[in-house]
Known about the structure:
The chain has 136 residues and is an all-alpha fold. It is 74% helix and 0% strand. The radius of gyration is 18 Å and the shape is elongated.
Amino acid sequence: xxxxxxxxxxxxxxxxxxxxxxxxxxxxxxxxxxxxxxxxxxxxxxxxxxxxxxxxxxxxxxxxxxxxxxxxxxxxxxxxxxxxxxxxxxxxxxxxxxxxxxxxxxxxxxxxxxxxxxxxxxxxxxxxxxxxxxxx
Length: 136
């Protein structure tokens, strides 16, 4: 079975960047609370919840990168789960932090997610080997 390697590498690199960005944002929010967001006043429990959500996305994306690098099938599924959680988390974070999701930020999130998912789609096997048991 032939598998394209470069799309998985591209998706893995994009997920690694996503993991670093989300982990950094979560760490800053945990450390500085609402002061790191600017003019927004945020309850400490809300800041902690958003920060932990950012860190969760970072951990999932990092695990997906490891799965993609070693070529495990669970790596692709974990990458899809990380992207979906990234999108949902972006909407929730925008609502909690700013009262409504920011349109430009969401467009960037959806574009980035589309590219990652497209690269994962391109990585699918090019051929399917048929065993004797599958022949009718």
